[in-house]
Amino acid sequence: MYPIWDVPYLSSALIVGLISSFHVLPSHLAVGALWVTVFIEKLAYSQNRSDYLDFVKRFTLLLLIFSFVFGSLSGIGIWYSATVSSPRAISALIHNYVWGWATEWIFFLIEIATIYAYYLTLGKVDPKTHIRLGYIYAIGAWISMIIITGILAFMLTPGKWLETGDFFDGFFNPTYFPQLFMRTFLMFGISGIYGLLISSTLNYQTKIDLSKLISKIAFFGMILGGLFSLWYYKKLPAETYQIIQGLPYMKTLIKVSILSFFILLGYFLLVGFIIPKLNNFALSLVIIVIAFIGILSGEGVREGARRPYIINGFMYGNQIIAKDHPALKIKSEVQKFEETGLLTHLGYLPQNLKKITSDNRLEVGRIIALHNCANCHAFTKAGLRPLPKLLAGFNPKSPEDIDAFLSALSAFPYMPPFAGNDEERKAAAEYLFTLVSSKK
Ligand code: HEC
């Protein structure tokens, strides 16, 4: 086991969630943008609209800055935050998918090289060559999505991998294709929002013509993306629905993401077919914020639906291996931690904290509680699922009450069993009781 990353109020989970949700915008823009741009560039040549080339130039610059600076930074941010938040889960993913990532990065390199070439050679090489560069980028970027979606979808629906441990069984898992197509079409919606933002900075006639065109592309992309989202939702396993139905705020998150979807769809419909001049810079920014809120809620549902696991059916949110995996010769750790205790597995602890004594009970109790709960709960009085508040809901009168709660933790379908032996559980309960009693 590794040290724990305790983030006041937010919890490490929400940090990963916020960075990842932000990353959806630049990453999907990166994959969708050039399909739209190349299409518009071709129109510029075939309809003799050199003003469209202004769009191509500005939009590609936006892509360079937003996707390849902010997107790259947030991509690294996901790796960094997820690694410190759940090192064992990342380790499990790397053990399975290191070659998947290596392949993805090759296409990522192609993307980076061609996007610079595309931007810098506009108007300087013949149109045919320039368009070809655009296609190389667009195809390379889409292949990177084809690869990364397999690994992302795996975490919620590992499918047959749970029995076989096979790379491709996990990769082509039950939600792989719905999710690939959902992302592929929704990315035209995301590209559309940014396309409208750039169009709004161009001269009037160009703005009107491009706003219409881009909104139409985005509108149909969103319709198809919406249909594939439904297919994705249908493919989720039955336990996932139970979790979603059991958590009250899930319905709110689902409603918010559906609402934001329809606001976007309505906006594209209006601008594309009815009043294109509605598009302006400020409104485009508002639409970006609405899209972000929708994505954040959608990601929240996806994350919540995976509880109590971090890799569904294999590793719990507290990073304990939940079930035997004979094909990979991995054993469930639940019993192991119950019998041998958690402390003996925390190599980073100084000697004086490796054993519970009357002096260090609360300090060690806190460490054990952090390992068990911090991945999903804030330890502060407010924030993400704040423990002082949630525990107070049971009105515990003594540490023994909390201990009884911890013993029965896995009776809650969304929580993993407590990891640790009896003595450790008691120490954790004593510490957790101080959180509740100090509240009064
Ligand atoms: C895998 C994530 C996860 C872990 C680990 C986890 N919980 Fe939870 N816990 C949840 C979820 C999800 C809920 C549902 C309530 C919510 O989301 O606001 C919850 C709810 C609770 C509640 C309120 C119960 C209710 O339904 O009213 C308490 C109390 C609680 N957790 C304590 C703990 C303690 C103590 C630990 C550590 C020993 C812990 N949890 C570990 C995810 C987790």
Protein model, in words:
Strands 1-2 form a two-stranded antiparallel ribbon. The protein is elongated and about 80 Å long. 71% of the residues lie in helices and 1% in strands. It folds into 2 domains: 285 residues; 112 residues. β1 and β2 form a beta hairpin. It starts with 10 loop residues before the first helix and ends with a helix. The relative contact order is 0.11. The chain has 440 residues and is mostly helical. The chain binds heme C. Heme C binds next to α13 and α14.
Summarize this structure as a short list of keywords or feature phrases.
single chain; 440 residues; mainly alpha; 2 domains; two-stranded antiparallel sheet; 2 strands; 71% helix; elongated; binds heme C
Condensed summary:
It is built from 16 helices and 2 strands. With 440 residues, it is mainly alpha-helical.
Quote the average pLDDT. Answer: 96
The arrangement of helices and strands along the chain is HHHHHHHHHHHEEHHHHH
Main sheet makeup: 2 strands, antiparallel
How many separate structural domains? 2
How much strand? under 5%
Question: Secondary-structure blueprint of this entry?
Answer:
Layout (H helix, E strand, L loop, with lengths): L10 H36 L3 H36 L1 H35 L5 H30 L4 H4 L2 H5 L4 H24 L4 H32 L2 H9 L1 H27 L6 H25 L3 E3 L3 E2 L17 H7 L20 H13 L13 H6 L6 H9 L14 H16 L3
Antiparallel strand pairs: 1-2
Bound molecules: heme C.
The site of heme C has 23 residues, from α13 and α14.
